[in-house]
Amino acid sequence: MAKAIRRSKNHTESQNWATSLVVPADERLYPLRQIRVKVNGASLKGESDLETPQPALAEAQPLGSETFPDGTIADLVRNPALFQRPAFVIWKDGTARIQECFRYGGHDFIPLKIEPSLFAAIQLPSGVEKCGDAPALLSEIRHYVAQYVEIEPQYLRLVANFVLSTWFADCCEIAPYLWVIGPSSAGKTTLLRILHALCRRAVLASDVTPAALYEVPSVIMPTLLLDEFEVTGKGRDLLRFLRSGSTQGGQVIRRAKISPTFCAKVIVSTQQPSDGALASRAIFIPMLPTSRELPRLDRIAQENVSHYFQPRLLAYRLEHYSVVESRSRPRVPGFTPRISDIASALAAPFLGNPHLEAQLCQDLGVQDKEAQLARHGEPEWAVATAIYHECHRGGTITVGDLAFTVNDGLAESGETYKLSPRAVGDVLRSLGLATEKLGNQGRGFRLTSALRHRVHQLARDLRIKRSDILPYITVDAGYAGPSCYLCEEFGLMVRDDGTKLRSVNPYKRRPGRSLYT
Predict the structure, then answer these.
(1) CB 159 within 8 A of CB 188
(2) Could you list the mean pLDDT of each consecutive 10-residue stretch along the chain, which spans 517 residues?
(3) Is the N or the C terminus of the chain less surrounded, counting Cβ atoms within 10 Å?
(4) Quick one: 276 and 159 in the same domain?
(5) Do both 154 and 289 map to the same domain?
(6) What backbone phi and psi angles, to 5 degrees, belong to 313?
């Protein structure tokens, strides 16, 4: 590996290829000579159907990345001759070439104009190199990361999967967040620098203002790397930015201007966020200090790895982009919706590899269990669980009495906040459950058969199970308490792991029959 990532040979070779570039001082559109690019081990000159722009053409359109109807892909790279200038890599039919401008369909395109300091901070490849398949690439990434930081194997695999997924974030509906947590001296910043060398269009920032963050995704859709994230002061604005930025099409309106927020992100902090909605969008990577002697990641080592991996990861993107973009990604059964979306996004570059997909589901299993536990603290889940518990007794219940049940459940889950009866009523309305006047008792529910059926249906939709309303001793013993035909009908008589619980029905005991069903 150490030999593989040496920069000198490849870097010198790419500079030799770049000597034919014509970069006019007046920045007008002049033709560019071809630059050879290595793809699949061969040195290709790459004859293309693309037209060469004529000198001094006006109305050129700035472009950051585009896939054209005939399969041609244009993507930003660093100009191999002048690293401070952008250029295009043009990919078609397995052939790549680098140009500073090009014409397609009668339109002229030039690289997107990026503020110089931002362009200097963006991690961009300067060429395309031979790449292996997904298992080989992921193995190389894991091997490199493990040299510099101590991470448990399942989390190491998730880090590598995240890196590869950033190269296809623009064709997925969800952009997962990688959240690195741990105490000081755990290697979090080192991992962040490694990810800066590996992820697509990575931008590393340790102290940023919300206004600046809103601008960056609208320019290049980067992978944002945020160090030392804390939810204090301006951190609240960052929370709003992060909540809206994991779903394709996410955007905010600031000062009469719409700014997209969608992009992959890496966040480093000492602890997980207390915001449940934000936590559900992230893959958490815990890190601890280690006694193992690890090599120091200096600037030269980081640049060498960048020059080795960036062209190969770009080649993997160019070769497989059309397949990943068109491939359907069904939800992962058994996972919570957010974790299922994350799994689909991480698995997109696997191209259907069953071994990689199975391993990913196994590695995300721990995250999914944590996500399920985190739901206990959500107001909607707490209220739905409480009404599901109360509907088994019949009669009536007021919103005030239901609030007591809700707050008891929150306290048992370790939550420190409480919900007032008015807040419980608001949540009930959001769940589609309308209260009625119960005389001088106030508002509440008559626990009719129709309402009980609706509540059981709601419990199924929210993945609430019978075990969620029982003492843990009862659940551990495998019992569900009194039988309920609606719980049976909606498949709720199970534990968290799916094991069926036995119910008790003493009123229908027959000679020779057990009390338990």
Answers:
(1) no
(2) 44 35 32 40 39 55 90 91 88 90 89 87 91 95 95 96 96 90 91 96 78 68 85 63 76 69 88 80 92 89 93 96 84 80 93 94 88 80 94 91 93 87 94 92 92 95 90 86 90 86 66 46
(3) N
(4) yes
(5) yes
(6) -65, -35
